[in-house]
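Supplementary Note 3. Input sequence used for the single-chain structure prediction.
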Amino acid sequence: MTSSRIPRSVRSGFRQWRANRPFWGGLLLALGGAEVLLTEKASVKVILHSGTEVLAGYLLPVVMLLCGLLILFNPTQRLFYSLVGILVTLGTWVTSNLGGFFVGLLLGITGSCLAFGWLPDQQPRHGLLARRRERRAAAETPAPEPSPAP
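The predicted structure, written as discrete structure tokens, is reproduced below.
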């Protein structure tokens, strides 16, 4: 479905919903958990180790996925969920094929850090960049020449 077929009210509603939460952090953390969970289903030839930590190998990515979804749908508790998310993500290094062959590990760490650093009342970034451009343009325009006195 192309963006021209989606009604403007749906797109603007989603943008408004996304702006009020650490969307990219939660999404990356959830994707990292899903990726680590999928690498647990890899064939035996691909799996690096299998042992007593098999339960933890399945439990930690599920907690990662859950923390990512909770960040998306309950952003007021983002600090707690992102701290749990990063600790669990680091735990997948040992229990889940090197954190899903590094991909899930990197997604989880990046998503947790983005969620932790998100500020709800922060001014949109494009406004700051526009103001900088305006200041730079004002500084570059030459001052008007004073008219000679009669």
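The radius of gyration is 23 Å. The mean pLDDT is 83.
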